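quick one
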Amino acid sequence: MKEILSHSIADTAKFAQEFLAGLFPCADSSTVVGLYGDLGSGKTAFVQQIAKALGARGSVQSPTFVIMKKYALKNPPSLPPLLKGGYRGDLQLVHIDAYRLDSATDLKKLGWDALSSDHSNLIFIEWADRVADILPLDHIKLRFEFVDDTTRKIS
Ligand SMILES: Nc1ncnc2c1ncn2[C@@H]1O[C@H](COP(=O)(O)OP(=O)(O)OP(=O)(O)O)[C@@H](O)[C@H]1O
Ligand SMILES: [Mg+2]
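structure w/ adenosine-5'-triphosphate:
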């Protein structure tokens, strides 16, 4: 398990870039990244930096009130090599916040089965523990912890 301390949004941005550089997409389904950790621990801030690194247009707000946001990335120009090789075409960033979902059944109603079986989707889920029973067992897990006002631990 890798662990980093982020002392600023800039550090979180750097970690997001490193994360993307080391990410190898699933071959035959979506790639799912579960984000775990308390309120204010930096989950949304991290996805904002992922979106920025992928060249997603428009600002990534916390999706808590809309639950799901999608950002189609048409042939993004500057993907790290592993991602470029893994996607070979269009990539859709999907940002889900499960905070207001009661269970995995709620996520199913949002069209989870189609989303998760589509290879072009790179899915980040905040509060992944709330829908844990529906996520692929081998999904990537990132834990966020509040250390102090400006410091977050990501493992
Ligand atoms: N090093 C850091 N990395 C990321 N965010 C930081 C850092 N230092 C301070 N922050 C601040 O912490 C807050 C993190 O909020 P964020 O919305 O990302 O948390 P969250 O985990 O998504 O919470 P929620 O569970 O409510 O969705 C932001 O206001 C951000 O500016
Ligand atoms: Mg959030």
